[in-house]
Write a structure and sequence with these properties.
34% helix, 3-stranded parallel beta sheet, 6-stranded parallel beta sheet, TIM Barrel, alpha/beta, disordered C terminus, single chain
């Protein structure tokens, strides 16, 4: 299994605060059957000096776990990029893709729906030839209208679903509707720690039908290393 969205790099964001916690999270993922991880620390343009400065910090954080004696699964580097006004024109934004693929993980704002959000996503994809992956899209169904949610789901994008969605009847129904519509999707834990937001791939082994797992997108097409 591939975790397409998680926060395992130490001291990058609101994920693990040290290497020991990062390694504990990775061990748990491996025990739950994950053999490939996409590390996607938050990127907020308004908080960062530049994309390039952030990439250097990410590489340093990755090196801290890579230099340990632990046998690691395949770890790809990516980002969870917050959609902000002007993000599509930010220098270097195209470098924040998932493991140098043409896919970029984007997080819609937790704010009332506005068309500029989809316009920024469209401009980003057109300017750089990227395919958006919309993070934890199921969460927005709770505060977007049905019509607004329909607009989001009509985007030319891959939809990322957190494992947490499978804990509820409503969440499982949402995923089934994506499958019926033929929408491309990937799964991720969105794990941040070992307590309140721990890796939860065990949820999938209990709750998810095999066809849901088998039909998620393989964004890496068999590639093993970033």
């Amino acid at each position: 299994m591939t975790d397409y969205h998680c926060h395992i790099l130490p001291r990058m964001d609101d994920g693990p605060k040290d290497v020991a916690l990062s390694l504990d999270m990775i061990r748990l993922m491996m025990a739950q059957g994950v053999d490939r991880i996409v590390a996607t620390p938050h990127f907020y343009a308004h908080r960062e000096k530049s994309v390039y400065d952030w990439l250097e910090r990410r590489q340093n954080a990755f090196r801290q776990i890579a230099d340990t004696d632990m046998t690691l699964p395949y770890i790809h580097l990516g980002a969870e990029v917050a959609v902000e006004q002007g993000i599509s024109r930010l220098p270097g934004i195209h470098l924040l893709t998932l493991a140098r693929t043409p896919y970029i993980l984007l997080e819609l704002p937790y704010a009332p729906f506005a068309h500029w959000m989809l316009e920024e996503i469209f401009d980003l994809s057109q300017r750089y030839g990227l395919t958006p992956v919309l993070a934890h899209v199921h969460r927005y169904a709770g505060f977007y209208s049905r019509a607004q949610m329909s607009e989001v789901l009509q985007a030319d994008a891959v939809f990322q679903i957190n494992n947490e969605a499978f804990r509820t009847f409503w969440g499982r129904r949402f995923v089934r509707s994506l499958v019926r519509k033929g929408c491309p999707y990937v799964l991720g834990s969105d794990a941040h720690n070992m307590t309140s937001r721990r890796p939860d791939w065990d949820t999938l082994t209990r709750k998810v039908a095999p066809e849901i797992l088998n039909h998620q997108e393989n964004l890496f097409s068999g590639k093993n290393a970033p």
